[in-house]
Amino acid sequence: MPASGATTGTTADTTASTTPVHDDRPRVVLDSSLDGHQKQGVSGGTWIALILGALILVLLLIFILQNNVPADFAYLGFEFSLPLGVAMLFAAIAGVLVAALLGSIRLLKLGRRVRKLEAERESIKRALR
Fold it and tell me: Where is this region: Disordered (predicted)?
């Protein structure tokens, strides 16, 4: 952070620039483009994810139909028989659920941090006015 009274650059390169004022306090110019919500633009990514998901689903159905051989399983004292493809489907679903749980926790933490930073930015803006 620059010393008080120093110029850091133009508003185009930084989010805030300081210029000296008559009372030797720097005047801060805020970048108003940070105040609004960001444009999401996720429709293209959503379509790609939908097409990839459909392709994976078709490949998974082919795999299940081709691996219809019964397999014996023992889990926590329970013994059962399932077609191999179905058992692998259950394992894949369990893996996706674990990954979704971990990803959700991370997103919640990031969301909390963003809200705290936005509140801090608002308090800084109020203090500078």
Answer: 1-25
70 neighbors 84 (Cβ within 8 angstroms): yes
pTM of this prediction exceeds 0.70: no
94 and 61 in one domain? yes
Asked whether residue 27 falls in the same domain as residue 58, the answer is: no
> In this predicted model, what pLDDT tens digit does every residue of 46-90 receive, in sequence order?
788 888 988 988 888 888 888 888 889 888 988 989 888 888 888
